[in-house]
Every structure is written in C-alpha cells, then in structure tokens.
Specification:
4 copies of one chain form a homotetramer.
Chain A (H helix, E strand, L loop, with lengths): L1 E3 L3 E8 L2 H12 L9 H10 L10 E9 H7 L6 E5 L10 E3 L8 E3 L6 E3 L3 H27 L4 H4 L8 E8 L1 H11 L13 H17 L1 H9 L6
Parallel strand pairs in A: 1-5
Antiparallel strand pairs in A: 2-3, 3-8, 4-8, 6-7
Helix pairs in contact in A: 1-2, 2-8, 6-7, 7-8
Chain lengths: ~230, ~230, ~230, ~230
C-alpha cells in the first residue's frame, strides 16, 4: 500500500511552439491590416481579439497520475482533448491512494455559493489521515479477496474508492489547454476567478508550467489577457 | 443503506421525431437525384450512405441513475453529448450502492483480448454480494464520520467507492446516440460487435427503447444497417 | 434574377426554456451551498461563474437564407452546431444574389488591425450595385449555359460567386449560441468587443432575438455578464 | 490569371507515428488479456475492435491549396480538425482558378441517388474550359474594379466565384483523418463506399499518402478493416 499527496504530470510528446501560432495566423490574417509579423505582437493581438484558431495547430501529450476523482472532472473537458486512461477492466489496479497533504484546506466555511476552504485543526487532520487510510485499506482488501475468488476485475473493482490512483495519457492543443486552465486553476489575476477542486488545480499548475516552457510567448499573452482563453 | 442491481433511465425532455430528419435532409439533398420524399425510404438512404448530419437536428435529455463506474465510461463520449452530474462537492451523497444481479456474468474465462464472461457458482455469488455489501457499508461509515468531524464533502468523498450511485442529465441527438449505442450495446446482429461493460449496456438498452419510441423509422434504419452509426 | 440586401432567419423547431437550465443545474449543484432555487438568481450565478454545461440541455433549429460567404464563416463554428446546407451538387441553385444595403459600410479606413468601416460616397455605391449586379448576372448566365450543355451541376457551379444565396438548417444549444453571438455581433456593451463581418452579424442579431423569446432570463444574464459566453 | 486543375497538399508539421498509438493503447489496455505488445498486432486489434482513442494522440498539420468549393466541404468536418484559411477580408485574393482536368468526369447520368459521372465529349469540354475561363476572368475584373474604386475587400469579394483558389492550414489526428478519408475518398475496397466530389478526393488522396508515410502500420490496418474508421 502506498499513500500519496501529490500528482504526477509529465510531457511525453510535444509539437508546440510559438512559431507555429505565427505561421497559422499568417495564413489567415496576413495582409495590409495585420500587425507586423513580429511574433510577440501578433500573438498578443490574436489573444486579445479572441482569434482562437491559430492556437490549435499544435499538440501536447501528457502522462498524468492522479486519483480517480480528479480524472472524473478532467474528462468533462470534451473539446480538443483526447484521453486514454488505465482500465480496471483490463488490469488489476495497484494499491496507491490519495491522502491530502497538510497544505490542502479540508474544512469548508460559509454558505450558499460563497463558501471558502480553511485549514483543519490537528484533530481533524488525524481523522482525515487515519480514517482515509483505514477505509482505503479495507476496500483494497475486499478487492483483492474478490479477485482471489475468481471474480472478474470489472466486478471486483466496484468497491474501490475514487481516491485510488489511476494514470492516463491526455493530449490537447494550446487552445483547449487554455480553456482548461481558465477553469481549473485558482489565480487571483484571472478576469474570471475560478474555485477548482484543489487536486485538479495541482495537475493544471504542472501542465501550465510544462506548456510555458514550450510556448513562452503564448503563455505570457494568456497571462496578459488575465487568463481569458481565446 | 440501499443496494440496487438496476439502473434508472427516463426521457425527461425530447424534441425528436423522424419528420425532423426528413426536413433537414430535404434542405441538403432534395433535387432531381434524391429518392422520393417518402420518409422511410429517405431515412434508409441517408443511413446507408452515411449522410449523418440530418440525424443531428433533434434533442433528447435523459435522467440517469447508475453507479459512478458507469458514468466514468459514459463521459468518454465527448461529441454531441452534454452532461450535468450530481456533484459530491455540493451535496452529501446518498448511501445507494450497486450489487450485480444474478443474471450478470461475474467470472472471466479465456485470455488475450478474447475472454468471455460466464456465470459464477453459488459460492462466488455469495462472495460478491457479501464482500461488496460489507465494503460499501464500511466506506460509507467512514464518509459519514469524516463529515461529522467537519471535514469538507469534497475531501470526505474520496473514500467512497465507484459502486455508489450518482445521477445525471445527459442530452444527445440521434446521431451521437447511435455512435454510443454501436459501442455500448452487445447485439449479435451488429456488423461490428462490441463487448461493453454489462452495466453501461443496461443504460444503453433503456435509452435505445426510449429513442425508438420517438424515432421509430430512424431506429429501424439503424438496425437495418446492422447498427453502424452514420 | 433577384437581388437581396437582407437575410432570413426563422426558428423552425425549439425545445429551449429557462426552466430547463434550472433543472439541469439542480442535478449538479443543488445542495447546501447553492443559491436559492429561484430561477433568475440561479441562472445569473451560473453565467457569472462560467458553469456552462446547464445551458446545453436544449435545442434550437434555425432555417437561414444568406449568401455563401456568410455560411463560410458560420461553418467555422464546430462545437455544439449541426448543419444541413442546400447542396449545389444535388440541385440547381436559384438566381438570388446579395447586394449590400445602403446602411452597410463599404469603405475601409485605417490600417494594421485597427481599421474602421465607413459609408461610401454616391459614386462608390453605384459601383458596388452596378458592378455586382453585372458580375452576378454574367456568372449565372455562364452557369445556366453549362447546365444546358449537359455539364454536371457540381462542375457548372464552380463559376457561381460567393454572393449567391444558399439556405440551411442550423441547430445549436444556448451555450454554443452564446459562443457564436459573442464573436459574431458588434455590441458596445461587450466585455470583449468583436468586429464581425456585417452580414453574419445580421444573421446573429435575428438569432439572438428569437433566442431571447425562448429563454429571456438566460439572454438577460448573458447581457448582464457583458456578453461573455460561459 | 492562372488556371489550375490540381491541388497542393503538403505536410508542414507532424508528430505522428505508429509507436505513439502503441504507447497510448498500453496505458488503457495493457494487462493480462491484451494481445502481445507487438505493434502491428496491437494496432490491428484496436482498429478491428473500434478502440479509436489511441489513434488521437498525434498531430499532423497540412498546408492545402484548393478551390473554395473544396474548402466548403472540408469545413463540415468539425471534430478533431483545426483550420486557418486565407481571409478575403484581410488580403486581396490572387487570380488563380480551377478548371477541371480532362480525367475529371463532367457529365452526370442516371437519377434518384444512383447517378454516375461519365466523361464529356469534346464539345462539352470546350464549353467547360471556355465558359469557365471567361466567367472567371470577368468576375475577377469586376473584383479588381471594385477595389480600385476604394470598396472594402470584404465587399468586393462577393463577386468572386467558388472556383477561385484559397489556402489553409488544417490540423488533425489519425482518428479524425480516417473519418475524413472514409467519406472523402472513392475506394472500391471500402466496406461503405462513398462518392465524394472529385476535387476533395484529390486532396484526400494526397493526405492519405503523406499520412501513410508517417504511420504505415496504422494506415495498413485501416485498409485491412476496409476503410472503416474506428
């Protein structure tokens, strides 16, 4: 049994750079009335004017390890995203489970669409860690027992919790990634602030860092536009 | 605590009939060289020739109750589908869990992409029912305890199993529904047989029945074409 | 030969109302922390917080007549849109052509991504009307001649101009419609102003009026949020 | 003025190989019951069983020059496709026009959804070539005149015919490309034969050749499955 408080995000394949945005934009927009072909100015112009299509001609494939409850939210992003997730029908899942780290706020205060999350006290933390571990262990033991009795993986796995880790390949382009980041990061500079689940934000933040290395001018233009996806 | 072996599928809103297919097709295809405007012939012509777009101008909203592991597969259908699922961040989930019914095959035989499912023996059934119930009860008790300690719903729910029931609205059109049915039903007449998870097939079969009442000629044409979605 | 300066937009089928948004949202968000179930407040909450999915469970089918150059832009809207357009492969196109009305600005001033459109002078208007008509007539005569010689419609139509009228069915939902309206209307109240082609804006404005009749609270919430699509 | 009978298709950027399909599939399907990890067998298994998602984690960007009437059909492919086409709002279009080559069948025989195309006689060819050229020249002259009078490009271009060449970047993945090829090529080996417009088939054939160089095992598996896209 392993207990983790983090997520894994790796960029496994990528064909994504700022130059590709410029090239695609030039096919559409080049003419007398477009800004100079200088990349930075053009990319900011596209972002500001919500010309989104030039940001689509690229591809990034990420390998992600995260709990199932994160992937449940992730898969709601339908457009410009491709997924292949580990299947509990085809293989036995490993006993790796999520326990929140101490920096994760675990208590909710307030009401009616306006609540905020705050840290718990020591006793609450001990409950989260102790009860989660105990529950995870018990569920996994039942899973193992069912498999030992010859029950199919696709039936035995029903008892496994959404806190178990899974893994997937997720492929997107810069435009679909920005739409994801706008909703799944919690950034005070955003024109439209979002309050995502902390664990999907942990994935999103790592994706943003990896993307920024690939397409620095585009990532900067996204920030300049206060994280409004084009 | 409730244990269920079935799923709920209701058609809550629908604007879908065969006549709408005919009307849309006439905009595109009417002219000297199309079949007579008689609905049945035209719909079969469209299905056979993979003219898919006339099947998109309609809408069906289903209310579905099923275990989370079913919704996990369902949400992989991205195109022409809209979802709103109950959120465990916003409300406490009810203790309703899935136990396979006796007609569900629970043992896997064979190997390498060619396995088949067979019924279990009495002892195996008792294990599935007994261990699943026991595991579900334990997980839900831990969930309740965490909530009682003031832990946020979005943290406490991590211990809940994928066998717990959730509910959602799912909206599609006839074309996106046919693509779903082709993959998520197990029908010997299909040109491209599929081996879906039994529980999602239970949902799919009910959706197909409800759809067939709305669009009988289209549903028949889908069958005539051996369940190949246009 | 007919010359038109307008476009036709009719709502031919619709299953769209504010109540459907509320019902879908309640499946996902109802719980202790959501706003009161009162429709107007809930819809504004969803729009403001970019919870877009509840706006997808509805359907509107429009019949549109507009020049081909409008449909060229329209078809770039890929997601949540279904189209069936009149086909020049299947039938002979009617001689109906677009001439700008006098309120349409026809002269471009300024440069480099910042130009504005202004009205032309009388002489320029006479050129637009006279040369367009003359050119349209000539193209259509060549088209007719080719058909008379037994040439296939799909070959003869190559000479027809993009100013010829076509017709289509276009089906969308409130969310995909808002994304379209945000880009294809020119509204000074918009948070992100757009400078669409005037002729597609003429279509968009009529669609917005028809939609507003169906979903008045949703349309008002879109305006309240300065036309930022969720 | 230039008259062309061909289309240009270049692969400008590509991150696409068979190994990527295998890697993505292994995340989902690897386990006791999948075929050996050997690439060819696995890819054929995926294609045969319509496991389409592993074919999505790749990207190909094509540069295409073709007449507008080809792009009109192309843009109807919405899913897994990104486009940036030359804009007649932003720049003056060049006088390059399409005239069918002699191998293109230009006469239609038969009726009611079952017509076939046949070659024309010498006189018919002379009409197609002569009238098309004459019509194109006249339309382009009117376009030029309008521009000379100071009329905006976006108004003047309405008189230009759909036979004028445009250019675009089109980005897809192997799955969306196969869906396109299944409909837009005319191949007697296809399980579901299609009768595409000849000119879009000319584009599709070149795309297929370029794709086959990138992903030979996948392209062969597509052929093995009689061109049924997964």
């Amino acid at each position: 049994m392993r207990f983790r408080s983090d997520v894994t995000v790796k960029l496994v394949r990528s064909l994504a750079d700022d130059e590709g945005v410029v090239q695609a934009a030039r096919v559409s927009y080049e003419g007398e009335n477009t800004p100079s072909a200088e990349a930075e100015g053009l990319i900011n112009f596209l972002m500001r004017n919500k010309h989104g299509s030039p940001f689509e001609h690229n591809s990034m494939t990420f390998y992600i390890e995260a709990p199932i409850f994160v992937f449940r939210e992730f898969h709601r992003h339908r457009i410009g995203w491709s997924y292949n997730e580990e299947s509990a029908r085809y293989k036995k899942l490993e006993p790796v489970f999520y326990i929140p780290g101490r920096e994760r706020k675990i208590v909710q205060e307030g009401k009616a669409g306006t609540y905020t999350m705050v840290s718990g006290d020591e006793e609450q933390w001990e409950y989260v860690e102790g009860l989660s571990e105990w529950s995870y262990k018990n569920s996994y033991r039942m899973y193992t027992r069912l498999l030992e009795e010859g029950i199919a993986r696709e039936v035995a796995r029903n008892v496994l919790p959404t806190g178990i880790y899974s893994s997937m390949y997720a492929t997107c382009n810069a435009r679909s990634l920005m739409a994801f980041l706008a909703l799944r990061t919690d950034d005070p500079s955003a024109a439209f602030p979002s309050k995502p689940l902390r664990e999907i934000a942990m994935v999103a933040e790592q994706m943003e860092d990896l993307w920024t290395e690939q397409m620095p001018l585009t990532a900067q233009a996204f920030k300049n536009q206060r994280r409004v996806a084009p």
